[in-house]
Please model this.
Amino acid sequence: MGGLMMKKSVFTAVSAIAFAAASVAYAGPSAEVLHWWTSGGEAKSVAVLQKEFADNGGTWTDMPVAGGGGDAAMTALRARVLAGNAPTAVQLKGPAIQEWYEEGVLADISAVAEAEGWEGVLPASIAGHMKCDGKWCAAPVNVHRVDWIWANADVLAANGIAMPTTWDEFNAAADKLAAAGITPLAHGGQAWQDATVFEAVALGILGPEGFHKAFVELDMDTLKSDKMVAVFDQMRKMRGYVDANFSGRDWNLATAMVMNGEAAFQIMGDWAKGEFLAAGKVPGKDFLCASVPGDGFLYNVDSFAMFKVDGDDKQAGQGLLAKLIVGQNFQKVFNLNKGSIPARTDVAMDEFDSCAHLSAKDMSESSANGSLLPSYAHGMALRGAQSGAITDVVTAHFNSDMSSADAVKMLADAVANSL
Ligand code: GAL
Model:
C-alpha cells in the first residue's frame, strides 16, 4: 500500500516537473522591479514605466519598499541578494552601483546601450555613473536637483516675504513667520531628510569648491574649517524653525504642510514638485521654487541596475526595461510627473514647467563653470560607509544640543574612521 502510494506520488511529481518544464518555455519579457517610489507623485511616475513595459509585452512584478531616500529599499535588496534571489531590476544609483558591481552581481547591459546609442544622448557626467569597468551597468532615468527651496506662494505674500536669496534673508523670513504662528520649515526628522537640508546649507555656506572638497574629496581641512562650524550654526537655526511634531515624518507629508499653508518652506529635492503637481498645484501660482542661497547645483540621478538572473524571460525583461528607460518618450513623460528633468539631452522641454526650465538652465551653466556637484545626501558623491558616517553626525547634532564646534570635531573623526 505504502509502495503504491509512493509510486503514485513519484508519478505525480514527475508529471508536475514535465508540466513545469513545458511551461518555462519562453513566455515573454518579465521583471520584478525593486524601487522606493510610493508617494503620490512617485507612484504616478513609476506607473509610466509599468505601462510602457506592459504595452511592449512585458510582465511587471512590483516590489515597492516604502521609505524616502531608499534606505529601507537598500536593506531589502541586500537581504534578497544574500538569499541568492536578486530582483530583476533595482532602483540603484551613484557609487552604490559600483559597490554592487564589485560584488559580481550586476548584469552587463552594454548591448542595449550600444544598440540605442546612449553614449551620444547622455551627458558624460551622467554616463560615467552608469559604467562599471567601461561596461554599461545601469540605465539613468532623470536628473533631480536637491538644492531647492519650495514655498507656499500665498503664505509668503500674506506675510510680505519674498523668496530668500541669502541665508540671512531666510532666517529673517523664518523669524517673521514664526512670530505670525506659521511653521517656517516643513521637515521630517529622518536621517536622510536631515542630510538633505544639511547639504543644501553646506553648499550655500561653503560654496561649490568647498562642497567638493568636503563631500567629494573628504578633505580634512575643509571638514574641520570655521565655515563648517558656520554650517552647523545654520543647522541649529533650522532646528528652531521646524514644528514640534517633525520627528519621523515622511517627506511627502512635510510637502503637504507647505501645500496646505501650515508651513511656509521646505528644503527638498524636486521630487517634492512631483507631489505638488500630483495634487494639482501650479508652480508660480500656488507654490514657488528657487535654488537655495548660494551658487552651484547638487544633482541626484535616479537609475536602474539589472542584477544577474537566470531565465530567458527575465533577461529579456532586463533588456526591454533598459531600452525603455532611456527612451525619449519615457524620459519626457516620466519626468513631467517626477519633478526632475530628463537625463537625455535631446528631449524637448516645451511641456515642462518653469522650475524644470530653471533646473535645466542652471545645470548647463553649473556644468560649464565647474559647480555641478553630486549630492552626498542622495548617494551620488560617496560610498555608503562615508556618507553614512557624515549623516550620523548631522542627525546627532540636529536632535541634540551639541555645539557646532563639537559637531565639526565629531564629523572629522567619523570621516577619518570610515576611510
Ligand atoms: C531620492 C530619489 C528620488 C525620490 C526621493 C524620495 O533619493 O532619488 O527619486 O524618490 O529619494 O523618495
In short: The chain has a mean pLDDT of 94.
